[in-house]
Amino acid sequence: MEDTINDEVDEEQEMPSDKVADLVEYIVCGLVDDEGAVSLDVTDSDEGSLIEVTCAEADAGRVIGRKGRTIKAIRTLARALGQRVGTSVEVEVVG
């Protein structure tokens, strides 16, 4: 019985990048008009994590911001949280 419980706990454990992805998703959804079109693809590797944000084409400009300031701020927040949870993070906007 104990083995079953331990297996379930292992399956439910979050990766550190999941917390960062949750933050990025929260911020991006607050910026865009079409929240349903927002999706994140998280790729974990030995070097760190890559979070690719996909959104509606009309909302991509809002996520990127003027002169890239908004996406730069999102990357800064993601990297800061990544350091706290022990992983390196990169955020890219796919469009």
Outline the structure in words.
- By secondary structure, this protein is α+β, with helices and mostly antiparallel strands.
- The protein has a single domain (15-93), classed as GMP Synthetase, Chain A, domain 3.
- It is 55% helix and 18% strand.
- It has 4 helices and 3 strands, in the order ααββααβ.
- The protein has helices at 2-12, 16-31, 57-64, 69-85; strands at residues 39-44, 49-54, 89-93.
- Strands 1-2-3 form a 3-stranded mixed sheet, with helices on one face.
- Strand 1 and strand 2 (49-54) form a beta hairpin.
- Helix 2 packs antiparallel against helix 4 (69-85).
- The longest helix is centred in the C-terminal third of the chain and has 17 residues, at 69-85.
- The protein is globular and about 35 Å long.
- It starts with a helix and ends with a strand.
- The mean pLDDT is 87.
Condensed summary:
Keywords: Cytoplasm, RNA-binding. This protein is of the alpha+beta class and 95 residues long.
| Strand count | 3
Provide the low-confidence segments as ranges: none
Inertia-based shape? globular
Order of secondary-structure elements? HHEEHHE
Q: What is the fold-level CATH name, i.e. the topology?
A: GMP Synthetase, Chain A, domain 3
